[in-house]
Amino acid sequence: MTATRTTTPIARVRAVKDIAAHLADQTAFVMMVNPQKLELLADRLPMIPDWTAYVDNGTDVILRTADARVLMVVDMLIENAVIVTIPKTVPATVIGEALAETIPADGAQDIVMVGYDPTQPMFWSLLFVDALQRVDPKTANAIRAASLSNLN
């Protein structure tokens, strides 16, 4: 967990820009979290020394937080989608162990899907797809076309 736990409401457009910047410069892991695994994620994020979560409930305001307790409360109160960014200064092995996910140690995998079952339909965070639109419009448009019913 970061040294200071901050939680700030920010404009959706700002969150999209922040996440898109991480996708473009490849200096952070960008994690799309299965909404059904948010409680588990909130339990495990404190094992990671530096991270930021963006909580999207479908409005023009995104909650940016570095406090896992906030994620637990949000999970109980509203339907949401969460994107987590973790700087690549945090070793992939630390992240993988904390989240029980396989992340290549060389940091080559920038986008990580947390808590997804490959046999189930993919849940796409609209916040993530909006950020991806700024970096890779072709892929974002393909996701929108193929996954319209699974966008949140």
Describe the protein's architecture and organization.
- The protein has 152 residues and is an alpha+beta fold.
- The protein has one domain.
- It is built from 6 helices and 6 strands.
- It has helices spanning 12-25, 38-44, 68-77, 92-99, 126-135, 137-146; strands spanning 7-11, 28-33, 52-56, 61-65, 81-87, 111-114.
- The chain has a 6-stranded mixed sheet, sandwiched between helices.
- The longest helix is centred in the first third of the chain and has 14 residues, at 12-25.
- The two termini are 27 Å apart.
- The model has no long low-confidence stretch (mean pLDDT 87).
What string, H for helix and E for strand, traces the elements in order? EHEHEEHEHEHH
Helix content: 25-40%
Query: Mind telling me the C-alpha Rg?
Result: 14 Å
Strand order in the largest sheet: 1-4-3-5-2-6
Number of strands: 6
Number of discrete domains? 1
Round the mean pLDDT to the nearest integer and report it: 87
The major pleated sheet works out as: 6 strands, mixed
Shape: globular
Uncertain regions spanning at least 5 consecutive residues = none
Q: State the secondary-structure class.
A: alpha+beta
| Straight-line N-to-C gap | 27 Å
Strand content bin: 15-25%
